[in-house]
Write a structure and sequence with these properties.
By secondary structure, the protein is an alpha/beta fold. It has eleven helices and 14 strands. The protein binds adenosine-5'-triphosphate.
């Protein structure tokens, strides 16, 4: 039995001035994984490699156990994609979109599409170019659900959406994975969305893998440490990642197991944002 929806093994891609270097991670079936990292970290490149929109220089990508290049056509039936901007033709209506997109999928379900369009309150006769961003996202999702995609790959789907639509969108993702067979890979800068719905996280910085694993484990492994300037000893400085001077003194990230030694400092739980910000500044773990 294949337990991973997606597996990347030692993926590399060289661009002039940028290298995605030896990225490995796996997304177990039935879970949501967030893909995070600062601008230019390599998130979209990773997604494009998974979708075989770019040719990798090294490594192997398996989708439901099948090689993503050798079995590209079969795999595409199982993957639903939502990008940060819509890739349908502006002058199409929603009906035209269904007609065109359904041709690519063997298992297209017209009833599911209609149900999603109703649920999302999408106007059938409006043109794609006239839909709001939130509506465009919902239309891409409706298409993904209508061909019974078992893996959703979303590149910054919630950026620019208002909080109410984001909330609805996250609920839909949670509902989608409920049966334990479907999975989501979701790149985002809005890490609070991940704290709400994701179980796993993969963090890339400057093309390098910083962390992949459970969110609980990541949050459990780090603490935010704050203190007065006079308490910042050389030993403490060495243990802090992403040290920042503040009005009160300093703050930064520290491994949870080390944090208890520094009694004069305030130790708080770290958020995913704290971890991404401090590690992006401070380099590696
Ligand atoms: N086709 C390409 N040719 C050359 N360089 C590229 C190409 N695509 C991406 N890059 C470079 O690869 C790096 C990573 O870009 P990528 O879009 O993967 O980052 P990202 O993590 O998705 O960033 P963002 O959060 O800003 O969307 C950047 O330096 C970018 O300029």
């Amino acid at each position: 039995m294949i337990d991973n929806a997606l597996e990347l093994k030692g993926i590399s891609k060289d661009f002039p001035g940028f290298k995605l270097n030896n990225i490995s991670f796996s997304l177990p079936k039935g879970y949501i994984m967030g893909l995070v990292g600062p601008n230019g970290a390599g998130k979209t490149t990773t997604i494009q490699l998974i979708l075989n929109m770019l040719e990798k220089d090294a490594g192997e990508i398996l989708v439901f156990g099948k090689d993503n290049v050798e079995s590209e056509n079969a795999i595409k039936q199982d993957i639903g994609v939502v990008f940060d901007s819509i890739f349908y033709v502006d002058s199409w209506t929603i009906k035209d979109t269904e007609k065109a997109v359904s041709l690519f999928y063997e298992d297209w379900k017209h009833d599911v599409f209609n149900e999603m369009i109703k649920r999302f309150d999408l106007p059938q006769n409006k043109k794609i170019g006239e839909l709001s961003r939130g509506m465009q996202m919902k239309l891409m999702l409706a298409c993904a659900f209508s061909h019974n995609a078992k893996l959703l790959i979303l590149d910054e789907p919630t950026s620019g959406l208002d909080p109410a639509i984001r909330d609805e969108f996250l609920e839909i993702l949670q509902e989608y994975i409920k049966d334990g067979e479907r999975s989501v890979l979701f790149s985002t800068h809005i890490t609070t969305d991940l704290e709400r719905v994701a179980d796993y996280i993969t963090f890339i910085n400057r093309g390098e893998l910083v962390y992949t694993g459970s969110i609980d484990e990541l949050l459990g492994s780090y603490r935010l440490i704050k203190g007065r300037a006079r308490d910042l000893t050389a030993e403490l400085k060495k243990s802090i990642v992403g040290l920042r001077k503040t009005d009160m003194g300093f703050e930064g990230l520290m491994e949870a197991k080390k944090a208890t030694q520094f009694k004069n400092c305030v130790i708080d739980g770290a958020t995913i944002d704290d971890i991404v910000i401090c590690m992006s500044k401070g380099g590696t773990r």
